[in-house]
Design brief:
Elements: H1 2-18, E1 20-22, E2 28-30, H2 31-58, H3 64-91, E3 94-95, E4 100-101, E5 116-117, E6 120-121, H4 122-140, H5 150-173, H6 193-211, H7 227-246, H8 254-282, H9 287-301, H10 310-334, H11 342-356, H12 363-373, H13 379-411, H14 418-423, H15 425-430
Antiparallel strand pairs: 1-2, 3-4, 5-6
Length: about 450
Amino acid sequence: MKSKNLLRLGLMGLLLFTGKVWASEGVEVDTGTTAWMLTSTALVLLMIPGLAMFYGGLVRTKNVIGTMMHSFVALAIIGVLWALVGYALTFGKSRFGGLIGWSSDYFMLKGIDNSIINGVPEYVIAMFQGKFAIITPALISGALAERVYFRGYFAFIAFWFLLIYCPLAHWIWAPDGWLANTGASGVIDLAGGLVIHVSAGTSALVAALFLGARRDYPKSQISPNNLVMTLMGAGLLWVGWFGFNAGSTNSSGLETARALTMTQISAAAGALTWLVIEAVKFRKVTSLGFVSGILAGLVVITPAAGVVQPYGAVILGAVSSIGCYYMIGVKDKFRYDDSLDCFGIHGVGSGIGVILLSFFIRKSWMETAALNIGSTWTAIDQFLVQLKGIGVTIAFSAIGTLVICYLVEKFIGFRLPAHKEMAGLDSSLHSEHGYGMLNLG
């Protein structure tokens, strides 16, 4: 009996040493890749409180809890919807030429209990992708800050997820999605430049225009309540972005290392460029500018991290920082109230990455793309594919968001009345105060 137990322990040790285990039906599980995907899932989840802190620090004291709740509640709303129908709509079997996805086996994830994909349990893949689905509508809340009903926001992100995010993600990320099969290798969007940032940025702009500005904008100075919290939130976002981009390779090897490296370089280049702009223009630098540069560098590399090289990451990070900086100035000029610059950073920065990545793609990728079609494939060819992708994303997101905003306002209520808005979200909607003291405005 003792010898049998020793034999079992020996076999278990051998399996752990080789990094392989076996699923119940004989399918091999790569424990190394699975461990990395589990880590990446946790890193992307970490971005939700990071976003809550980033946004929460930028609003006024009377709105800090309400603003942070906009990020956190997405964990619950989209978390349930993703398991219920989201995964099926996004990664289910393509129908109508790749326009819609659906698989009944994915309803409530009931058909993936024993499924292994490329050595990774499908549950892990589903949960990793689910975190992307959660953070995307939460990004839009930055444009709606300080002036919407909680119930209206609840309905808005639920409908936006079902009607915009799921179809768009299917078009670009599902194997049979129609944009995934455009050109030699489809639209390039490693981790959501289009699916997440351009769609959220476009929708944020549309929603901000639909709702109108905060009642004291731009007449009164609206200052952040806690830049320390915003700095910490930006730090968490930077850390989480390694799971965001490197995890999107769905592997644990060379491609993963490339994506992680380009993410770090672009974020640093974006932050440094923003500091240089401020130093030249104002003779001083700001923490708010620094974190804005970080985000500009991160969003621009999100679609491109799997295909560009380090010099490309530096250039993209710098160009994105310049573009986002001046777009925020355009907001001030035209006086539309994208409160926390969701469009100015996420929409513009990632849009730059989606388009310009075409000119920094590594040679080996281009050669593989050419083999796929049995002909030459150039940067201009890919550029045209990327233009198609961003055009479709902007049009679909803008029109869909306008319809959703109208329906939510008409049937549920979206924009707060003046007295509740002036009192603040924390008091009027949640009966709380963010810092345990009187609301200081």
